[in-house]
Fold this protein.
Amino acid sequence: MRTARLTLDGNDYELPVFEGSEGEVAIDISQLRAQSGAITYDPGYGNTGACKSDITFVDGEKGILRYRGYDIADLAAGCQFSAICYLLIWGHLPSAQELARFRDAMRAEALIHEDMKKFFEGYTTAAHPMAILSAMVGSLSAYYPDVVTDDDLDRNIIRLLAKSKTIAAFSYKKSIGQPFVYPRNDLGYASDFLHMMFATPMEPYAVPPAMAEALNMLLILHADHEQNCSTSTVRMVGSSGANLFASTSAGISALWGPLHGGANQKVIEMLQRIAEDGADYEKYLALAKDRDSGFRLMGFGHRVYKNFDPRARLLKSAADKVLEGLGVQDPLLDIARNLERVALEDAYFVERKLYPNVDFYSGIIYRAMGIPLKMFTVMFALGRLPGWIAQWKEMNDDPNNRINRPRQIYMGQTARSVTPMDRR
Ligand code: CMC
């Protein structure tokens, strides 16, 4: 057996070493504390493998992203998002029959319980749709609580995928004070979502094929990304035995942060700010390099990708195509391109290996599609749902799963007593 040796206070410890299917080497420290009394310290978990997983492979140095072994570019070129959901959750691309059954099941679950519509009444029109999405997804567990068999779980998985699309579109309608538009059974996932967003009781909405295609691709590109902040949150919450809806709701909250999925909204806000300030992108590049400014180039940098983000590459060329296809001109696209160009030539960004990430160009495409800014992170969440579900399911199916419970190095005050003076 391959091992690594750790020497601590003159004692040697042999630690088992194993390798993943793509050659990643891991030192198994699961018995370290029991053997040596010491624990490891890794803030931000940059060097910690929290699980073994068969779902998604990312090689940050080479810019590789694969779902179940398939390259992301391959999947994004022509596959349907529903087939990718199936692939991630159940491990293989569905046959025509499996896909038809899956789609039918999703269509049958697209409506939310009528009582849930009352929840929307409690929000003001200013409510952020991520707040609504996370609360409503958690609330699904109040309506569909019992999972006894694998079939029950599959049904809840389908409910979560299908109803989140409806909840997301309803949260937008709520924010503009329009009546909800119900899902349609004759439309695919992306088209149905766009129909619920943009149709009104007075006028149906004919979904432009270019828009449905673009949204389908965006959803696929966001569908999973191994152990990122929100996915680790889903696993963390799920490790206690919390149900799928509750765990996913926590994942949605984690995604909302501006350093994670919330970055897609922040990128556009940043580009708008630069546009309003005379499109002086060099000024903002300088600000991003100045630690004291508190300004970061949103949509740039990634914990794992240190060369390029394959999703960003696909989105950059998609942005050109989609805007042209929809006949939209967006001055923010020029600013984004210029910002990327100067950043990629700048020593600060080169040395730190900072490249555009998935959020840099996705917002430009959402804007061209007419999706409002506050919905951008909701779009990310809809795309990421199958990934969260697949990871939650994999964890639950793993007989070695234990409740997640990291340790800490306590650095605070050592033991002391309350004095009589303190007892007031
Ligand atoms: N602009 C300016 N400097 C940056 C940026 C940026 N966007 N990102 C990282 N840096 C600098 C950072 O200041 C640090 O510099 P120094 O070594 O001098 O202290 C160095 O690069 C390393 O950064 P870090 O914050 O230690 O890196 P991290 O791996 O902890 O953070 C990140 C990764 C994505 C949170 C970060 O790059 C960032 O804040 N980016 C902007 C927000 C963003 O676009 N988030 C979306 C991520 S992709 C979608 C997703 O999966 O969520």
About this structure: Strands lie at 3-8, 11-19, 25-27, 56-59, 64-67, 70-71.
